[in-house]
């Protein structure tokens, strides 16, 4: 419980905010997304949690290129439950669906 404007309200730590509406991405933003993935791999940040990559003490390229929330919108396209199966035959399995969607236009 916490006090807000003279009222006592319950605080629910498990209530998630509604998901943000997806905004279509441009080829430029998709290139930025790929650049962030490449930079994360080169700088050994590819195993870090996304929130760690956008902290002030990490590589400034991530924060300068794209917001963390926008990056998370791109990542939502990765089907993590089938990633291992796809990765056995496809090295770019995590982003294959996005590439196919972008190339279909």
Please tell me about this protein's structure.
This protein is mainly α. It has one domain (23-103). It has 6 helices and 2 strands. The protein has helices at residues 27-42, 50-53, 60-65, 68-75, 83-89, 93-103, and strands spanning 2-4, 7-9. The protein has a two-stranded antiparallel sheet. The mean pLDDT is 76.
How are the elements arranged and paired?
Elements: E1 2-4, E2 7-9, H1 27-42, H2 50-53, H3 60-65, H4 68-75, H5 83-89, H6 93-103
Antiparallel strand pairs: 1-2
Q: What series of H and E elements makes up the topology? A: EEHHHHHH
The gyration radius over C-alpha positions equals 18 Å
> Residue share in helices?
40-55%
Largest sheet: 2 strands, antiparallel
Features of this protein?
mainly alpha, 6 helices
In short:
Residues 20-104 form the PiggyBac transposable element-derived protein domain. This is PiggyBac transposable element-derived protein domain-containing protein. With 105 residues, the chain is mainly alpha-helical.
